[in-house]
Amino acid sequence: MQGLRLGILASGSGSNLQSILEASQNKVLASQVVCVISNKKEAYALERAKNYGVSAYSLEAKEKDYDKKILELFREHGVNFVVLAGYLKIIDQTLLKAYPKAIINIHPSLLPKFGGKGYYGKKVHEAVLLAKETVSGASVHYVDEGIDTGEIILQEKVPVYQTDTPEVLAKRVLEIEHQILVKAIAKIEREAVL
Ligand code: GRF
User: Fold this and answer.
1) Does position 194 have pLDDT exceeding 90, yes or no?
2) Which residue CA neighbors atom 5 of ligand 1 most closely?
3) Which of 8, 54, 143, 157 could join 103 in a cystine, given CB atoms 3.0 to 4.6 angstroms apart?
């Protein structure tokens, strides 16, 4: 199976990116990461890309034509599928139009709960604990013009304990994120062949 040519957008440590790089190297995925772009020049995700010999770029989000520059770089690398792996900016029409139903995002909650504007990173887990939820989890979804509103591809649950802090819950959810992100890409690979 040929696999996809993945373009990754990341803003942070890149542990989700790492799970894709490893799955690709171990042939769990036929897809290849061919380009990583961050809006944060200090994002460790860029280091992780370089460790795997993958082209890595940082762009200033306030730069003129920022989204167009992302698209140009993705096109240069023959990207045919985009993964938001801990990316903290909203995707604009430029990319959505260029990659219809070919952009996915990983979110650290059981969407649609605790998703949307203002729900990212630790804030998600704080809200889950405040709501006294007994279950949380992670979701992989297609990106549409909304925030965390696209069609859900995969979700997986984790228990929430009363003694949990946001950091402890975040760590438990992050482990699931890594698993379902790879599983979702594998599912999309299979569907792409059929
Ligand atoms: C994670 O908390 C994840 O929930 C969200 O972005 C954060 C950063 O993850 N999607 P990563 O280590 O940069 O992949």
Assistant:
1) no
2) 86
3) 143
Residue 56, CA distances (Å) to 86, 96, 189 in order: 15, 21, 23
CA atoms within 13 A on the CB side of 117: 2
Q: Best substitution site from 105, 154, 169, 174 to test ligand 1's pocket, by max atoms within 8 Å of Cβ?
A: 174
- Nearest ligand 1 atom to alpha carbon 138: 4
Average pLDDT of the chain is: 96
> Which ligand 1 atom is the nearest neighbour of the CA of 84?
10
pLDDT digits (tens, 9 = 90+) for 141-154: 999 999 999 999 99
For 158, list phi and psi in degrees, rounded to 5. -135, 150
Express each pLDDT in 124-142 by its tens digit: 999 999 999 999 999 999 9
State the catalytic residue, choosing from 107, 125, 141, 178. Answer: 107
Name 9's Cβ contacts closer than 8 Å, sequence gap at least 6.
37, 38, 39, 70, 82, 83, 84, 85, 87, 89
pLDDT digit string, tens, across residues 65-75 = 999 999 999 99
Distance CA(183)–CA(20), nearest Å, equals 10
